[in-house]
Specification:
Rossmann fold; Dna Ligase, domain 1; six-stranded antiparallel β-sheet; four-stranded parallel β-sheet
Length: 348
């Protein structure tokens, strides 16, 4: 009898990778929601046997996987390697912070397990906001003026850029450590927030663009990118920024520009594959590039509700067969709040 391929779907925060202590609610809520959503889509497709891991601190979390493996404390690396050894492919969801996603993807690649995602090299570049900024500027793509500096030199560099500005880590994920600084008197508090979010001495200062926070979800296969949706992001700007939720799709006059800029940005990083998110700020009909996310993003949980195809199946076909959908029709609109991700996504 034909046995379907074994797919290892691993979400780092909820899947046993987080250190001892309390799990970070925000990252766990978003990670858990993405994990449940993509597992449900693979189950609906019915062509693969899914295996995932679960942190014992979340023992009651329902997961629509064929096999759920508990990860004892301190055993994440061993369990991860063992499951890779009996898998035909792997889809990994993890923060880029500290090189986590790049390291896990490299472990899978070194084990000879095909990735439903981007190469470790592409992830490493996408996870370095300074490296991305340099590529954006060299390609002539619209992106805010950004400077790399040290904590000690921040006041001088901030005066050179001008206020208001944004402080952020070089390798952070989402809103982690990101602050809006209106003037020099607010700088010390922002740096204190940033120092708790990064272990690196180098940080980024960026001109503030006061527009609509958005993202583009794309499928990438063999260097070709298909924009799927423009997504709205509800972000409270402050110190730090706070992600509140989103809407898919977002109707905006800059949609055409956003798709073009996102596709161009993805083309700058060879090795991107599968689902990719590009963060933008939309202002006066123009799309300003912020970040490239070489993995599933929280917008997935809204996109799957309105996209008239199975998104998990499309990711498999993009990564394993090099095929993109001819069309990706969207019907309706779906809004979600970060505060209730656990509640409604658990009932997929």
């Amino acid at each position: 009898m034909f046995a379907p391929p074994r797919l290892f779907v691993h979400e780092f925060v909820t899947g046993g990778g987080w250190p001892p202590g309390e799990l970070p609610y925000g990252l766990a809520a978003e990670g858990g929601a993405m994990l449940r959503a993509v597992l449900a889509d693979f189950r609906a497709w019915g062509a693969v046997h899914t295996v995932t891991t679960l942190d014992p601190r979340l023992a009651d979390l329902p997961l629509p996987a064929d096999d759920v493996v508990g990860v004892p404390p301190g055993q994440h690396a061993a369990v991860f390697a063992a499951l890779l050894g009996c898998s035909d492919a792997a889809l990994i969801i993890a923060p880029e912070t500290g090189g986590t996603l790049a390291r896990l993807n490299a472990t899978a690649q070194d084990a000879g397990v095909p990735l439903l995602g981007s190469s470790p090299a592409a992830v490493a570049i996408a996870g370095d906001k300074w490296a991305c900024y340099q590529r954006f500027r060299q390609a002539g793509l619209p992106t805010p003026v950004t400077r790399r500096t040290s904590f000690a030199d921040t006041p001088q560099v901030a005066r050179e850029i001008g206020y208001p500005l944004v402080t952020k880590p070089v390798d952070g994920v989402g809103c982690e450590g990101v602050c809006l600084v209106a003037n020099e008197t607010e700088l010390a508090a922002a740096l204190a927030v940033l120092s708790r979010a990064t272990r690196r001495e180098e940080i980024l200062l960026q001109s503030f663009v006061a527009g609509t926070h958005a993202s583009v979800s794309l499928l990438v296969a063999e260097g070709q990118a298909l924009p799927l949706s423009l997504n709205g992001q509800e972000i409270a700007t402050g110190c730090p920024f706070a992600y509140r939720g989103g809407v898919v799709p977002l109707s905006h006059p800059a949609a055409t520009s956003a798709f073009a800029v996102a596709r161009a940005a993805v083309g700058l990083l060879p090795g991107l594959q599968g689902y990719v998110g590009v963060d933008l700020v939309l202002l006066n009909g123009e799309a300003w590039l912020m970040d490239i996310n070489p993995r599933l993003t929280t917008s997935y949980i809204g996109l799957r509700r309105v996209l008239q195809l199975n998104l998990a199946q499309a990711i498999w076909q993009a990564c394993r067969q090099g095929v993109l959908p001819e069309k990706a029709p969207i019907t309706g609109q779906f809004s979600f709040s970060k505060d209730n991700l656990w509640a409604w996504e658990a009932a997929i």
